[in-house]
Amino acid sequence: MTLHCENIPLARLADEFGTPLYVYSQSALTEAFQAYTDAFSALQPLICYAVKANGNLSILKHFASLGSGFDIVSGGELARVLAAGGDAGKTIFSGVGKSEAEIEFALNAGVLCFNVESLPELDRIQAVAERLGKTAPISLRINPDVDAKTHPYISTGLKSNKFGIAYADALEAYRHAARLGRLKIVGIDCHIGSQLTDLSPLVEACERTLLLVDKLAAEGITLEHIDLGGGVGIVYDNEDVPDLKAYAQAVAKLMAGRPLKLMLEPGRSLVGNAGTLLTRVEFVKQGEEKNFVIVDAAMNDLMRPALYEAYHRIEVVEPGNTAPFTADIVGPICETGDFLGQNRTLACTAGDLLAIRSAGAYGSSMASNYNTRNRAAEVLVNGAEAKLIRRRETIEQQLANEQACL
Ligand SMILES: *Cc1c(COP(=O)(O)O)cnc(C)c1O
User: If you measure from the C-alpha of residue 345 to the centroid of ligand 1, how many angstroms do you get, rounded to a whole number?
Assistant: First the structure.
């Protein structure tokens, strides 16, 4: 009855490592990765795990050992990939605002490709490459203008978004890139949003992107790869999510006859369901209109509910004999938005442990020190073995860069 991660009771992990604690299942990470390689086996894609979903070095190292490449959005993430033993030659550099220093770092490291999002960025990469005497492999991120039908904050493929180059401007942007002598045009990419629950926008984006591939070929610009980004949704509650096999079949059908290498950039769907945030109940507070279960995890540990009103399943780790009641599960932070779940019916009491599910993606990677809270520890479980993969932060570490000058 008591909840486990693989073969280890969650309660034992809480005793050993304290709470709040992120717990990840290594076999769940492996299975999620293999679901992609199995589904897409006919196309032999390069899967580039999106580091921003969860950049813990052990998680990166695990994916690297499975053959994964990486999708990064900052120089910091490139440093993580390299520190984890990842291959720069399998790393794609995405993002709308790459600095000169980041471009230089990536060029020197030898990244597979820059996913470029604007003309000024093309010019900047050209200039840095010129200065270093290098050639920069580039792909253009095209905005296919399809509605991903997801939360507006995580929808990226519409005309109104800051991401990518407008579909109508794509050919001209490629012509511009082709005139820049230090750039080598290798691909095209798109990424239309995150937590997509519908397959059709993903397929439509692929179709529209391939149309551009053909138009470019007709102009003598031959691409080596197409990168369809990430975005496949996961089950947090009871959503339908895209079937990877159906996705792969649709893509294979569209790509048939084109000698293009396929790349994918999944983040959430590789780590989201592999992670749980363990937290302990501090108090149960009966309010006038609402009850509150106040726990030791908060929005600084898991920002998604506060940021997008995201839903995470919450379960009692060791169910006892308490009667169930309905409450908001909230943290100690001084913000009304500091909730982890609202209107949940749970049977718990002070001192009990709660498991906040599907917290592996955009959980620890979005954590902050708000309210001067130390960021949580992280543990990776493999069978009956648990490894501490991130120590709990200390107050000394938080204060280390500050000075009381006056
Ligand atoms: C965030 C992001 C991803 C990963 O998205 P998921 O929804 O986590 O799969 C992939 N590519 C780019 C460019 C991104 O910004």
Answer: 33
